Amino acid sequence: MSSNRESSLSSSPHSVMVIDDEMELATMFKTFLIKEGYDAISFSDPIVAFEYFKETSDRHSLIITDMRMPGLSGVELAKKVRGINKKIKIFLITAFDIADLENNSDFKEANIDRLIQKPVRFSELREMINNMLKK
């Protein structure tokens, strides 16, 4: 199964999409977000996630995506999302070196709001999300 479309029934005005090719991580992030009071949905397939986003682009405030995924990288996904919705916030998470990434032309075009190095602590992620969505 490539998506976990059970979203929370939270009263939060913010909906968050999580995309990570490791389903366990995607589900873990989604569970964390729901506990934090956000409406959340997770996907392990970035292509399925993008198809879903095209149908629901006005419902989401934030996308949290892994960088390296089969079929569509997080940067490529972000570029496609920006073609539909320039205002949505996008966090890119990676376990790989990020030193050269910020100078990459595709990265700049994707207009990533926050680049996060794994491992990330939930306490730090909570603060990043809360600060970003309050803007």
Task: Please tell me about this protein's structure.
The chain is of the alpha/beta class. It has one domain: Rossmann fold. The protein has 5 helices and 6 strands, in the order ββαβαβαβαβα. It has a 6-stranded mixed sheet with strand order 1-3-2-4-5-6, sandwiched between helices. α1 links the parallel β2 and β3. α2 packs parallel to α3.
Name the poorly predicted regions: 1-10
The tally of helices reads 5
Biggest sheet strand order reads 1-3-2-4-5-6
Q: In one word, what is the shape? A: globular
- The topology string of helices and strands comes to EEHEHEHEHEH
Name of the CATH architecture: 3-Layer(aba) Sandwich
Helix content: 40-55%
Please identify the structural class as seen in this structure.
Answer: alpha/beta
In the CATH hierarchy, what is the class? Alpha Beta
Largest sheet: 6 strands, mixed
Number of strands: 6
Q: By CATH's scheme, which homologous superfamily applies? A: Response regulator
End-to-end gap: 35 Å
By CATH, the topology is Rossmann fold
Beta content comes to 15-25%
Domain module tally: 1
